[in-house]
Amino acid sequence: MIEVTQLHPFFVGEVSGVDLREPVDAETLGALIQAIDTHGLLVFHDQEIDDEQQLAFSANFGELRMSSRNIRSDYTSRIDPRMTDISNLDANGDVLKSDDRERLYMLANRFWHTDNAFRLVPAKYSLLSARVVPPDGGETEFTDMRAAYDALPDKMKARLEGKVAIHSIMHSRAVMGFADYSQEELDALPPVPHAMVRTHPGSGRKALYIASYAHEIQGMDTPEARMLLHDLMEHATQRQFVHTHTWRAGDLVMWDNRCTMHRARDYDMTQRRDLHRSTVMDDGPTVSDAQVA
Fold first, then answer.
1. Are 269 and 95 in contact (CB under 8 A)?
2. Kind and range of the H or E element at 255?
3. SS3 283
4. Topology of the domain comprising 3-291
5. Residues pairing with 243 in the sheet
6. Is residue 45 within 8 Å of 245, Cβ to Cβ?
7. pLDDT for 223-282, tens place per residue?
8. CB neighbours of 129 closer than 8 A, spacing ≥ 6?
9. Is the Cβ–Cβ distance between 40 and 11 less than 8 Å?
10. What residue segments make up the domains of the chain, in order of their start?
11. What is the pLDDT of residues 52-78, one digit of tens each?
């Protein structure tokens, strides 16, 4: 039976007693779902897992999603296309050069975000395994969006009720200076609406749902909307809500995108860093047709 130790006052559970390389029985799966519903983020150490084993474990939690980078004509994946390559390595496994477009594009991972919020059906869970880590730096920070919502003034909670934000990956990348997208890429990932407050189905608690992709709010002028999004982002990423995970090889971290945000941190990018992410799709859009303006 698994054991879970809470690592942060609000969230994050460290799990022991399970080998993710092996098939998971129904009792263990139920315990893991209960644990992530409670903690929002689970940390597993000493999991020397490969892509097939990681995909098999991830599939226990729902339908898997292929990386959005595979729609790009200039991108060649060096790992299983059902996974997202979170590394500084090129298709041959060599460290990317400092001016490589892919390296520069991936810098946007340092913005606070929740995975796949630029899609109409976003991500439910993400599972990231560390195969090679640099000697220092390269941490991942997570923030608890349920605790952040709970801490909002009642007046702000009322203001956000029913609000819908528009998310676009092109917006977050444009902030980084990327604007040379093909029409095919623009058509494949159009802006999408998402509820700004979601009720987390596993815990019944409300959570803020924002990300660096959010840039408009339905029914609001752009300057007002962006200032509100800025203020909410500042609130949600206060240090009391944040946990920093320092990676070691063999770690697998699983998080619930419906109630957390995360961001990558800086490291010496001449050093190898190789992490592989599998992504479980959410059950459907966050808004109904009636909520879409």
1. yes
2. strand 252-256
3. coil
4. Double-stranded beta-helix (3.60.130)
5. 142
6. no
7. 999 999 999 999 999 999 999 999 999 999 999 999 999 999 999 999 999 999 999 999
8. 47, 49, 54, 251, 252, 253, 275, 276, 277
9. yes
10. 3-291
11. 999 999 999 999 998 766 555 566 678
